[in-house]
Amino acid sequence: MRIIFNIVFYFFWLMVLCQPILGDDFYSIGSVQHYTVKNKGGVSFVRLVNIAKNKQSRLPLPFIEMKVKTAKRTLCSTVIAKAYFYDSSKKFTGLFSIPSSVKRSNFGSYAIPTFFEANIEESLFFVFPEKLRKTKNLYIVLVFGDKEGVSAMVYPQGNPQQFSFPEKIYLNRQPKKEREEASKPFVERIFTIRKGSQNQLTLFLLPKLNQKKIAGVFAACLLANNVEEIRKRIMFTKKSDELFAIMEYCKKNNLALLCWGAQTMWDKRRSWDEINKDIYRDYDHGFDHVAQAWERGVNQLCGEYQVPKEGGFLLWGTSKAAQYAMRLAMRCPKYFHAVYVHIPSSFDKPVLEGNNILWCLTTGEQEYGYERSLRFFQQCRALAYPIVYKAIPGLGHRDHQGCRKFGFIFFDYALTLCTTKQKRIKDGGFDKNLGLWNKEFVHPPYWGDAINQNIFSAEKFYSMSSSYRIPLPNEKLAKEWKRLK
């Protein structure tokens, strides 16, 4: 009997000590691998080291890859993911690591996804702390979960219960209630671009930012490095982010939000009339395919989610995103009611159909595309574009809170004219060569002086050069234009 007892006792402790994973079944760790150079998927981490004057070498860094899953879609802000390091005697070194950012296919670089999708394996990577990169015989405890319960695994082997780490109190904890699946406030859809340097376009649609009936669409081209960055900005937008201001404007005006990231497909420091004709033709044709994919996507999403296209979208962009937005508006003018762009730096060729869109362009007199912006403004006016223009004295290539406010005031004005525009289209009571806005922009109540930054009433517009007259269609816009500095 004693022999049987000893055998049972031995196997009991063998199972306990070799158990690699603990925790409830919502969070699971599939495997843990250690790499010194790169993994099978080509993921690696390096540090640049100076080896001689003006010469550097790439030093590979050791890292851990942990493959994980969640039972339901889970928002990253609720997740704990850490790696704790211990010496050969299992004493905590005082060092831990959080997931490191790494490039992931077409989704760009990120450390942890915005959402862990249900039962979809995701790899998290932990780079060794610098002090431990040459240390041998380390133990590493990998933790994945939340405050309702975590799973843990020891590398190379061991039982997590033998180690001390803050989340240990959550091991084998039973959740107080069943975890709910994280909801997505947006629809995300990928559309293929048939030709050109950009092979796909990801559109995000937020159909309802409040509970009221959708009155229109705010289309925002965003400065974003990748799709994952847009997801995080939507979910965790900061008050300083222009996307926060855009979302607040959409809530206030009952607008759906359509957004996507900008990519550069042209020379961002030269306009269409400064580029070799053959090169410009390639740029032009390449972006035609982008516009076609965008149009397919918009028609599909608006149809599926009952988002109105009538009345035209408001379109917004800053810097590279302004260049992208402007080029899109030139190719799909029927979709847009008003466009606001800030510091675009390079400009596409104005097309006649663009004069049925309200335009607002802001920039800085120290911005490297300032002279181009003036030239674009004059080219647009020659085609009867209804365009408001403002260059801020002393401003370079950077964002400007006053310009952002001015853009929203301009959109307020544009929204008051939506029904007027539709009635004019229906009645056919406009000349396509003059645009829809000849009354407000050919004979406005105020004019701005693009050079001297002064405003004049309609009666005194003759006192400035016609090349630099800026139509200001109402008093509120005129006052805000004058105030911008």
Can you tell me about this structure?
The protein is of the alpha+beta class and 485 residues long. It is 27% helix and 28% strand. It has an eight-stranded mixed β-sheet with strand order 14-15-17-16-18-19-20-21, sandwiched between helices. A four-stranded antiparallel β-sheet has the order 7-6-12-13, with no helix packed on it. β2 (46-52) and β3 form a beta hairpin. The longest helix is centred in the middle third of the chain and has 28 residues, at 277-304. The chain is elongated, with a radius of gyration of 29 Å. The relative contact order is 0.08. The model is unreliable at 1-20 and 423-434 (pLDDT under 50).
Distance between the termini: 92 Å
- Estimate the global geometry from the Cα principal axes: elongated
- What structural category arises from helix and sheet content? alpha+beta
Q: State the strand order across the main sheet.
A: 14-15-17-16-18-19-20-21
Strand content: 25-35%
Q: Measured on Cα atoms, how large is the radius of gyration?
A: 29 Å
Largest sheet: 8 strands, mixed
Give keywords.
elongated; 485 residues; four-stranded antiparallel β-sheet; alpha+beta; disordered N terminus; eight-stranded mixed β-sheet
Explain the layout of strands and helices.
Layout: H1 2-18, E1 27-35, E2 46-52, E3 55-60, E4 63-70, E5 74-75, E6 80-86, E7 92-97, E8 102-103, E9 109-110, E10 115-116, E11 122-127, E12 139-146, E13 149-155, E14 187-192, E15 200-206, E16 216-222, H2 227-235, H3 242-253, E17 255-261, H4 277-304, E18 313-318, H5 320-331, E19 336-342, E20 358-364, H6 370-382, E21 387-392, H7 401-416, H8 418-427, H9 438-442, E22 446-449, E23 455-457, E24 469-472, H10 475-483
Parallel strand pairs: 16-17, 16-18, 18-19, 19-20, 20-21
Antiparallel strand pairs: 1-4, 2-3, 4-11, 5-10, 6-7, 6-12, 8-9, 12-13, 14-15, 15-17, 22-23, 22-24
Helix pairs in contact: 7-10
